[in-house]
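Below is our example:

___
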Amino acid sequence: MGCGKKGTFDLKPDFNQWALLAGWKDEASFNRFLKSSVVKKWWNIFSKEQYTILCEPISSHGKWDGQNPFAVTGNNEIKGPVAVLTRATIRFNRLKNFWNNVDRVAQIMNNANGYITSFGIGEAPFFRQATFSVWESLEDVKAFAYRSAEHAEVIQKTRKENWYSEELFARFKPLATFGTLNNEDPLAGKI
Protein backbone atom coordinates (compact mmCIF):
# COMPACT_ATOMS: atom_id res chain seq x y z
CA MET A 1 0.00 0.00 0.00
CA GLY A 2 1.00 3.58 -0.43
CA CYS A 3 1.93 5.79 2.50
CA GLY A 4 1.22 9.37 3.41
CA LYS A 5 3.77 11.84 4.67
CA LYS A 6 4.81 12.43 8.28
CA GLY A 7 3.06 9.35 9.71
CA THR A 8 -0.44 10.15 8.47
CA PHE A 9 -2.34 9.93 5.21
CA ASP A 10 -2.03 12.81 2.82
CA LEU A 11 -3.35 13.87 -0.57
CA LYS A 12 0.31 13.96 -1.62
CA PRO A 13 1.71 10.45 -1.09
CA ASP A 14 5.22 9.71 0.10
CA PHE A 15 6.65 7.77 -2.84
CA ASN A 16 9.70 6.85 -0.74
CA GLN A 17 7.66 4.79 1.73
CA TRP A 18 5.44 1.74 1.12
CA ALA A 19 3.58 -0.62 3.43
CA LEU A 20 2.53 -4.23 3.53
CA LEU A 21 -0.15 -5.23 6.01
CA ALA A 22 -0.39 -9.03 6.09
CA GLY A 23 -1.80 -11.77 8.26
CA TRP A 24 0.04 -15.02 8.91
CA LYS A 25 -1.41 -18.32 10.14
CA ASP A 26 1.69 -18.96 12.23
CA GLU A 27 5.32 -17.98 12.71
CA ALA A 28 6.47 -20.58 10.16
CA SER A 29 4.35 -18.91 7.45
CA PHE A 30 5.93 -15.55 8.25
CA ASN A 31 9.42 -17.07 8.14
CA ARG A 32 8.69 -18.67 4.74
CA PHE A 33 7.64 -15.24 3.45
CA LEU A 34 10.92 -13.73 4.68
CA LYS A 35 12.99 -16.46 3.00
CA SER A 36 11.23 -16.99 -0.32
CA SER A 37 8.72 -14.24 -1.15
CA VAL A 38 9.22 -12.32 -4.39
CA VAL A 39 7.95 -9.23 -2.53
CA LYS A 40 10.61 -9.61 0.18
CA LYS A 41 13.33 -10.15 -2.42
CA TRP A 42 12.16 -7.04 -4.29
CA TRP A 43 12.32 -5.02 -1.05
CA ASN A 44 15.86 -6.25 -0.38
CA ILE A 45 16.96 -4.98 -3.79
CA PHE A 46 15.15 -1.63 -3.91
CA SER A 47 14.74 -0.44 -0.34
CA LYS A 48 17.15 1.58 1.73
CA GLU A 49 15.44 0.68 4.96
CA GLN A 50 12.83 -1.83 6.17
CA TYR A 51 10.83 -1.94 9.38
CA THR A 52 8.56 -4.76 10.50
CA ILE A 53 6.27 -4.94 13.52
CA LEU A 54 4.88 -8.41 14.26
CA CYS A 55 1.62 -8.15 16.19
CA GLU A 56 -1.15 -10.26 17.65
CA PRO A 57 -4.76 -8.99 17.44
CA ILE A 58 -6.33 -8.28 20.85
CA SER A 59 -9.58 -6.69 19.64
CA SER A 60 -11.19 -5.95 16.30
CA HIS A 61 -14.56 -4.80 15.04
CA GLY A 62 -15.87 -3.64 11.70
CA LYS A 63 -15.12 -4.73 8.15
CA TRP A 64 -12.38 -4.44 5.54
CA ASP A 65 -13.73 -5.31 2.10
CA GLY A 66 -16.69 -7.01 3.75
CA GLN A 67 -14.77 -9.11 6.26
CA ASN A 68 -12.86 -8.80 9.51
CA PRO A 69 -9.36 -10.17 8.79
CA PHE A 70 -8.14 -10.02 12.39
CA ALA A 71 -9.46 -12.98 14.36
CA VAL A 72 -8.85 -12.51 18.06
CA THR A 73 -7.81 -15.86 19.46
CA GLY A 74 -5.98 -15.10 22.67
CA ASN A 75 -6.16 -13.03 25.79
CA ASN A 76 -7.13 -9.46 25.00
CA GLU A 77 -5.39 -7.95 28.02
CA ILE A 78 -2.32 -5.92 27.25
CA LYS A 79 0.44 -4.34 29.27
CA GLY A 80 2.93 -2.10 27.53
CA PRO A 81 2.84 -0.87 23.94
CA VAL A 82 -0.27 -1.24 21.79
CA ALA A 83 -0.70 -0.83 18.04
CA VAL A 84 -3.95 0.48 16.58
CA LEU A 85 -5.32 0.16 13.06
CA THR A 86 -8.16 2.43 11.98
CA ARG A 87 -9.34 1.85 8.42
CA ALA A 88 -12.26 3.35 6.49
CA THR A 89 -13.76 3.60 3.05
CA ILE A 90 -14.89 7.20 2.74
CA ARG A 91 -18.10 7.95 0.87
CA PHE A 92 -17.38 10.04 -2.24
CA ASN A 93 -19.91 12.69 -1.20
CA ARG A 94 -18.11 13.03 2.19
CA LEU A 95 -14.51 13.25 0.96
CA LYS A 96 -14.31 17.02 1.42
CA ASN A 97 -15.60 16.78 5.02
CA PHE A 98 -13.08 14.02 5.78
CA TRP A 99 -10.04 15.74 4.25
CA ASN A 100 -10.88 19.06 5.93
CA ASN A 101 -10.30 17.36 9.31
CA VAL A 102 -7.21 15.22 8.64
CA ASP A 103 -4.41 17.70 9.39
CA ARG A 104 -5.85 18.91 12.70
CA VAL A 105 -6.33 15.39 14.09
CA ALA A 106 -2.92 14.21 12.82
CA GLN A 107 -1.19 17.12 14.54
CA ILE A 108 -2.97 16.36 17.82
CA MET A 109 -2.05 12.67 17.56
CA ASN A 110 1.63 13.41 16.95
CA ASN A 111 1.74 15.48 20.16
CA ALA A 112 -0.42 13.18 22.31
CA ASN A 113 0.91 11.58 25.48
CA GLY A 114 2.20 8.08 24.83
CA TYR A 115 2.34 8.40 21.03
CA ILE A 116 5.32 6.49 19.58
CA THR A 117 4.88 6.42 15.80
CA SER A 118 2.31 6.07 13.03
CA PHE A 119 1.92 5.28 9.37
CA GLY A 120 -0.79 6.57 7.05
CA ILE A 121 -1.52 3.80 4.56
CA GLY A 122 -4.11 3.08 1.92
CA GLU A 123 -4.88 0.72 -0.93
CA ALA A 124 -6.76 3.52 -2.75
CA PRO A 125 -5.35 6.48 -0.82
CA PHE A 126 -7.87 9.15 -1.79
CA PHE A 127 -10.88 7.30 -0.34
CA ARG A 128 -9.64 4.08 1.35
CA GLN A 129 -7.52 5.23 4.24
CA ALA A 130 -5.91 3.61 7.25
CA THR A 131 -3.71 4.73 10.09
CA PHE A 132 -1.49 2.27 11.92
CA SER A 133 -0.29 3.92 15.13
CA VAL A 134 1.80 2.66 18.05
CA TRP A 135 1.36 3.87 21.62
CA GLU A 136 3.06 3.37 24.99
CA SER A 137 -0.13 1.92 26.51
CA LEU A 138 -3.81 1.22 25.97
CA GLU A 139 -4.61 4.04 28.40
CA ASP A 140 -2.73 6.48 26.14
CA VAL A 141 -4.78 5.28 23.14
CA LYS A 142 -8.04 5.75 25.03
CA ALA A 143 -7.02 9.20 26.27
CA PHE A 144 -6.31 10.36 22.71
CA ALA A 145 -9.30 8.65 21.09
CA TYR A 146 -11.99 9.48 23.63
CA ARG A 147 -10.80 12.29 25.88
CA SER A 148 -9.21 14.60 23.32
CA ALA A 149 -11.90 17.20 22.54
CA GLU A 150 -10.74 17.62 18.94
CA HIS A 151 -10.69 13.90 18.18
CA ALA A 152 -14.03 13.35 19.92
CA GLU A 153 -15.51 16.11 17.76
CA VAL A 154 -14.29 14.41 14.59
CA ILE A 155 -15.71 11.05 15.76
CA GLN A 156 -19.09 12.75 16.26
CA LYS A 157 -18.90 14.29 12.77
CA THR A 158 -18.16 10.92 11.19
CA ARG A 159 -21.30 9.46 12.76
CA LYS A 160 -23.59 12.47 12.26
CA GLU A 161 -22.51 13.09 8.65
CA ASN A 162 -22.15 9.37 7.76
CA TRP A 163 -18.63 9.73 6.31
CA TYR A 164 -17.81 6.03 5.94
CA SER A 165 -19.38 3.23 3.95
CA GLU A 166 -17.15 0.76 5.80
CA GLU A 167 -14.81 0.96 8.79
CA LEU A 168 -12.61 -1.29 10.89
CA PHE A 169 -10.88 -0.68 14.20
CA ALA A 170 -8.34 -3.14 15.58
CA ARG A 171 -5.86 -3.19 18.44
CA PHE A 172 -2.74 -5.32 18.53
CA LYS A 173 -0.07 -6.43 20.95
CA PRO A 174 3.37 -5.85 19.37
CA LEU A 175 5.39 -9.07 19.69
CA ALA A 176 8.64 -8.27 17.88
CA THR A 177 10.26 -5.75 15.57
CA PHE A 178 12.87 -6.08 12.84
CA GLY A 179 14.85 -3.39 11.07
CA THR A 180 14.70 0.37 11.43
CA LEU A 181 12.52 3.35 10.62
CA ASN A 182 14.47 6.56 10.03
CA ASN A 183 17.57 4.74 11.29
CA GLU A 184 16.04 3.59 14.58
CA ASP A 185 13.58 1.10 16.01
CA PRO A 186 10.81 3.18 17.67
CA LEU A 187 9.88 0.18 19.85
CA ALA A 188 13.43 -0.73 20.94
CA GLY A 189 13.40 -1.77 24.60
CA LYS A 190 9.61 -1.41 24.87
CA ILE A 191 8.44 -4.93 23.97
